[in-house]
Every structure is written in structure tokens, then in C-alpha cells.
Amino acid sequence: MPRIAGVNLPENKKIEISLRYILGIGPSLSSKVLNATGISYDKRVHELTEDEVAAIRNEIQRKLLWLRVILEKSCNGY
Length: 78
Known about the structure:
Distance between the termini: 40 Å
Number of domains: 1
Shape: elongated
Structural class: mainly alpha
């Protein structure tokens, strides 16, 4: 069972749906991550290769870091 951002993804669900189990990822961000990595929306989690999991993990870290910076700026009054 792949673990991304501290969450075990359900293996029998489509990756597009499974990514939404991660806090901060909804339908929009899930689609953006899959488009950026070139992974099919219909692929199931148990069908992912290690390289695809690593690509998703890296893209999510990049997207969530950007989101965190934006939120910190808005909370600090910038």
C-alpha cells in the first residue's frame, strides 16, 4: 500500500480518488498532480510503479509547499 504525505492510499480505488484522502488535496489539486505527472486518472493505486509513486509524492510536496507559503503569508498579514 503506497504511503504518500503520511497517508496510506487505498489500493483498490482509482488514484484520482485516492489522492483526496490526503489532507489539503481535493478534486482540483488531485487532477493537477496527475496532469503534471502524466499518470492516467483511471489507474488504480495497486497498478502504480515505484517511479509513478515517487513522481506523485514529489509533485504533492511541491504543490503543498506552495500552498503552505501562501497560507503563512495570509495569516501573517503580508
